[in-house]
Amino acid sequence: MLEAAIAGYLVSLSLIAAIGAQNAFVLRQGLRREHVGVVVAICAASDALLISGGVAGFGAIAAALPWFAAAMRWLGVGFLLVYGALRFRAALKGGEALVPKGSEPVPLRRVVTMCLMFTWANPHVYLDTLVFIGSVSAQYAPHGLAFGIAAAAASLSFFAALGYGARLLAPVFARPAAWVVLEAAVGSIMWALAAVLALG
Q: Which of 14, 131, 139, 194 has its CB surrounded by the most CB atoms within 10 Å?
């Protein structure tokens, strides 16, 4: 069970840490110190809902179709390899400094709307949570629940750290080189997970 929980936490964390519009939005709100708690709650709750659906749904499908788990396992390997390659490509292109735009307060309603759009209108979130996390969780049966809870906890801890720790990170991520290092680190984690999944 402990192994499943650790794997769930690390898999979820590596997927969430990939640079994207949602993370940039959370980081920007943290830098502006506006509605950070609401933004963190929306992102974490959305991930928890999607992760639970992936873990529960994948298990039901795998029970009905014995070949499905193996097929999804190799789909997951391919997904991680491609996703990691995209992160390396982003690192090679160079980073972009994140500078929060505007100084006027943004209404809560607008922030909530934008956060929901960044979360639910992103097609990658469904691949990450429903497909990939769901397929990996099947490798740790019968401890899928522990895997899923840990994956959701990773989401909560990451978004909380990103939102509330943004002020500390502001001087660092004002430099494009910081984003390059992070992109390369995420790409390395993705490829390492692909190797573990393929050999597991």
A: 14
With tokens 């505007």, the residue in question is 102
Rounded distance between C-alpha atoms, residue 42 and residue 33, angstroms: 16
Q: What share of the chain is helix, strand, coil (3-state, %, to 5)?
A: 80, 0, 20
pLDDT in tens, 77-128: 887 788 789 888 888 887 665 555 555 677 899 999 989 988 887 767 777 7
117-135 per-position pLDDT tens digit: 888 877 677 777 777 787 7
130 with 54: CB under 8 angstroms?
A: yes
Given a contact cutoff of 8 angstroms between Cβ atoms, the answer to whether 178 and 172 are in contact is yes
Instruction: Answer whether residue 153 shows pLDDT above 80.
Output: yes
Query: Cα dist. 77→56, 112, 120, 142, 191 in Å?
Result: 21, 34, 24, 21, 9
